[in-house]
Amino acid sequence: MTDRHHGGRRYRLISAGAVALAALAVMVPGCSNGILGNRGGDTRCGDFLSQDEQAQRETIRAYLREGGEDPVNLQIDTTRVIVLGFCRTIGRDDDPIRRIEGNR
Asked: pLDDT per residue over 73-104, tens digit each?
C-alpha cells in the first residue's frame, strides 16, 4: 500500500475520534449534570451546591417536571433559591433536594 493510502486511513481514524469526543462533550456538558445525568429531585444537596447556576436551573427544571409541571423561569428561579437556602442551612450533603417538600 502506498503512503497516501495509509494517510487517508489515519485521517479517517482521527476524524472518527474527533466526532466521538464531540458527541461525548455534548452528552456530558462540563460535568454540570455528571455522568449519570440529571437526577432531578433525587439530586443530593452536596451535588447541587457544586453545580454551576445553569446546571442548578436544569436540575430544578427536571425536579419540577417530575411533579407534572411545565415550569416557567420564575418557578425555576424561585425554587432554586429555596433549594439553595435549604442546602446551605439545614440540609445535609446527602439530603435529596426534594426534602424541601418536608418529606424524608
From this structure: 999 999 999 999 999 999 999 999 999 998 65
The single-letter code of the amino acid at 94 is: D
**Number of domains forming the structure of the chain:** 2
Domain that holds residue 21: 1-30
For residue 12, what pLDDT band results from cuts at 50, 70 and 90? Answer: low
pTM: 0.64
Q: What letter would DSSP give residue 26? A: H
**If you search the block for the grid coordinates 429555596, which residue do you land on?**
82
Cα distances (Å, whole numbers) of residue 50 to 18, 23, 69, 75, 99: 29, 24, 25, 21, 18
Containing 78, the helix (H) or strand (E) segment is helix 73-88
